[in-house]
Fold:
Amino acid sequence: MREPLIAGNWKMNTNLTEARNLVRAMLGELDGIAHVEKVVCPPFISLPAIKELIKGTSIELGAQNMYFEDKGAYTGEISPLMLVDLCDFVIIGHSERRQHFTETDEIVNKKVKKALDVGLRPVLCVGESLEDNEAGRTDKVITGQVQAALAGVSSTSRLAIAYEPIWAIGTGRAATGKQASATISLIRSTVVSLWDNDTAQAVRILYGGSVTSSNIAEFIAEPEIDGALVGGASLKANEFVSIVNQTAAIKSTQ
Ligand code: PGA
Structure:
């Protein structure tokens, strides 16, 4: 049985005060929700403060990115070794990084390997563009991204994958539960082909893209979908709490 995972990707939003206020506004309620792993991913500069705030609670922390080298002359980058003391999770290969910061499959692969090597828990993001989707290339693109990102990865025990169709991110146009579930099944079979069935059954695969408290139930009702990577709605305390609450309620009946 895979424990559901709900992660909030705050993206480039909130200064330090706003980040603290957002966590304070949901801390009590979130902490009280059992059987769902709850992760917040604020901007780098807020990680130390949020780490302090969530100490002793069941809420966990993630970063939104990292570089694949340990240290050196990489101005402006954040090393995985700087993150291990601060957080457990790290989002890798988000489509916004692929799009605006030219992250290739090869870079994503290096980052996934490095994150696992240093003991972080990567949330690997994959997703097809609207153009690929409309041309019927979704399966090919997704399979290719998963294979490339996981090439040479030896252990999957700390890995999660998020299927985030690019056309659904920040657009208010979410996939349907059935669409997401079908692609997530494909991702799981790709993981089976890279390792084996037992390994693939243990990897959590999330949906992301315009998830809100109004549509989370549709995704979570699908047994193949193990949780969500939530962007915009994770910036509203009551929305995020509701998403986590509904996930706990629905998954407990599956
Ligand atoms: P969204 O973003 O929920 O705002 O669509 C999701 C994501 O990019 O992870």
Observations:
- The chain has a mean pLDDT of 97.
- The first strand starts at residue 5 and ends at 9.
- Residues 177-194 form the longest helix (18 residues).
